[in-house]
Amino acid sequence: MSRVLPLPGPLLLLLCYPLLAQRDMAQKDVAQKDIRASTTGTCSPVVTGTSSQVTINCNGLSTAKANQLVVLMNRILAERLDLSEVNGKLDQLHEDIGGLNAALHPMANLPQPVLALLNQGDVLATQCTNMMSDWARLSIDASHAAMQARTAERRAALEGRVSSSSSATLDEEKAKEFARIYSPRLAAFNATLHRFVPDAAPIADISIPASAQQAANYAFDIQMLSKRYQENQAQSGRPYNSQLVNQITNAFADANRFCRDWNQAKMDSLTSGRQADRLPTHSTNPADPTSSVNADEAEKYSQTLRPKLISFRDAVLPQVPAYSSGRDYDAVSTSSQLGGICSDVRTLSAAFQQKALQEAEHKRVPGK
User: Fold this and answer.
1) I need a surface site. Which of 97, 107, 179, 273 has the fewest CB within 10 A?
2) What range does the domain containing 130 cover?
3) pLDDT given at position 366
4) Residue 49 falls within a domain, yes or no?
């Protein structure tokens, strides 16, 4: 049987107070467990309580580098290393790495204006070399073309000499051809016409003419005899044999054409021979075949590349006072002269680069 004991009010408060205190402490513990600490910065340590692990959030680091950093810090803590000694080693390592980078990439530490000038020098040297190569190629082509022309001229002259020496052979061949084709026909017409014109002066038949002129005269005499025949027939009131007259006219025209061709071939042969005899042993065109090419390319250089080269030289020479080539960038009339300027630009650029690297090394290691 249970009973409810009546308690006075003050005693009841004393009994409940410990319970209230325990409740408050429990709430405080819960509040402490929910505490979240945060900091800002590139590398910010966050500590949330005593005997807790330290979490370092480093933005911008890869996982591999972050792990290496953790290993390094744990080693420092575990081996109780002197932080000043560690910092000294790190500084020395940084300096050694800087020296290694400078050795592997010496141009990386040069000022931007210097790098710009060096790049300009490389570009101009390349452009200069390309122009020089094109110029030289054009000059070679011009010389080769002139040589081919001289060779053709000499060959034609030699052929002319051969033609001149074989002039007699040409006459002999043409005379035989005339005798085979025209002489028999003209001789037959000569005999026929003299029967109708007995009082006409006799015409000696020519079997093999000695020249084209003799053959032409023979054919002309037969043609004149034909006209005499026609006149006699007209005076006597008798018709002439038109078929015979036409045959004689055609034979005369053919023979006359043959003689003209014969004469032309003979003249061509003699003319070639005389030209060959007058031909000098050297070229008939003494002018330099590359003069036109040189003039055009020199003008091209003057208008395009020369101002850039002079500007580069004037910008670099004060930086390298010990360098002096004495080469004039204005006087360029051949590809070989331009080649000398190209070489000078490269040498000047190399001297400037060497001086710039020496100055950069001196700044990196004072007193060196």
Assistant:
1) 97
2) 112-149+290-364
3) 61
4) no
